[in-house]
C-alpha cells in the first residue's frame, strides 16, 4: 500500500522588492510548524520565484500527489478568476495523476476577516 504524500502551497502575487515576501515567508514557516505530514511551500504569480508550476513540478518530483493551493490574496480579482485557473489547467495537463485542490482567497475567510477587523480596531489605540 502506498501512502499519499500531501503538499500545501501558499500562492502569493509577488513584487519587485524582496522585503515584500518576508511576511509570506513567515506565514509559510509558521504553517510548516503546524502541519505534520505535508510539505509546505510558497509560490508566486509573477515578479518572484518560484512560480506555481515550478513548485508543483518540484513537489511531484518528491512523490507528492495531493496538493492544495491557498491563494494568499485578500479577494478574488482577475488573478484568481483568470490567471490561477489557467495555471491550474496547465499543471493538471502536465500531471494528470495529480489531485490539485484550490482553497478560496485567504482574505475572504470569516476568521481572517475577524483578525483583520481586530487589527484595524486595535490600531485606534486606547
From TrEMBL:
It comes from the Bacteria. The keyword Nucleotide-binding does not apply. One of its GO terms (molecular function) is sirohydrochlorin cobaltochelatase activity. InterPro entries: CbiX-like, Sirohydro_Cobaltochel/CbiX. Its EC number is 4.99.1.3. Gene3D superfamilies: 3.40.50.1400. Keywords: Lyase, Metal-binding. Pfam families: CbiX. This is Sirohydrochlorin cobaltochelatase.
